[in-house]
Amino acid sequence: MKALLDGGFPAITKIDVFGRGKQRGLKVGEVTYDELPKEMLILVARNEDQTAIINTILRSARTGDKGAMGDGKIFVSAVEESYTISKGLKDEEEVAIA
N or C: which end of the chain has fewer CB within 10 A? Predict the structure, then answer.
């Protein structure tokens, strides 16, 4: 999150979640932990900032030079509409969620 803030992207939501990826959990002795603690970040930004945001996350979230299983995923999808509640107005900028 600090890397995004330092990169000029301060607006972010962090949610503590539990889950597993392709690794199907973690086995320690005879016990399998299939619900691992993770963090989910939700970020809505202008389309023109998408590449910079993705590159920032890739650089800061990767384990070591080559990365490791469990480093996470980035999903990008369009946001059809957004509204600023305090202003009571529809936002006019095109945005995507990452």
Answer: N
pTM above 0.85, yes or no: no
91's CB contacts (< 8 A; 6+ apart) are 81, 82, 83, 84
What percent of the chain is predicted at pLDDT more than 70?
94
* Distance separating alpha carbons of residues 43 and 14, to the nearest angstrom: 9
Q: What is the tally of structural domains in the chain?
A: 1
pLDDT band at 20 (very low <50, low <70, confident <90, very high): confident
Counting residues of the chain whose pLDDT is more than 90, the rounded percentage is 31
What CATH number corresponds to the domain at position 64?
A: 3.30.70.120
